[in-house]
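Handout, section B. The chain below has 239 residues.
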Amino acid sequence: MCSEFDVDEREEEACDREEEQGSAFENGSITVKKDGHFIHCLTVIGQIEGHFILPSQNKTTKYEHVIPQLVAIEESRDIEGLLIILNTVGGDVEAGLAIAELLSTMQTPTASLVLGGGHSIGVPLAVSCKKSFIVPSATMTVHPVRMNGTVLGVPQTLSYFEKMQDRIVKFVANNSKISAKAFRGLMMKTGELIMDVGTVLDGEEAVKCGLVDELGGLSDALDFLNGEIEGNNNALHNN
């Protein structure tokens, strides 16, 4: 026969699970336990929203929500690894690059997995983690920084976009196996995108050119994180 305390405890645990699941649906993130290790999964989907609020019908990832989560994960004593799942068309360049820069400086083991698409500013996000994975059916579009909306035809504006593009090229080259020259070549390729310059890569091509580390899926990314966590734990014990 169950005591009143046991019933209350089970009800409390059920409420906690419901709150966690509700939070996951709302924020696109959840912490799971894999082989005894707690790994946080964060999704980057739709458009990356930055300084301007996008229409309500757009599926967006808000950088002001993502950045505090990354800080909390890095400072957490419980979360041992971070998995970023990408299916994004791109979005605000500065916001996307800010998230990518933050990811690249984390000590928590990180892995990225491109599903569907990792386009535009999604490319730096994909390479920002310690190891990147992509499924064969996913695609990545590499193109120059675009100027949306009204463009002021002054040298300062053009200089800003050139510097932003240089930052992206340098970041990708520093965080992947592709060279800056090769990546810029993909950016400026003509004849592949109608009315535009750039390159579309499928999963196998992204790995072949060195942009993404490995073809793989969810289990591969989680296995990598578990290996990194166990390696770090063994190093701490040996010291």
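Note. The chain has a mean pLDDT of 84. Compare this with the example in section A.
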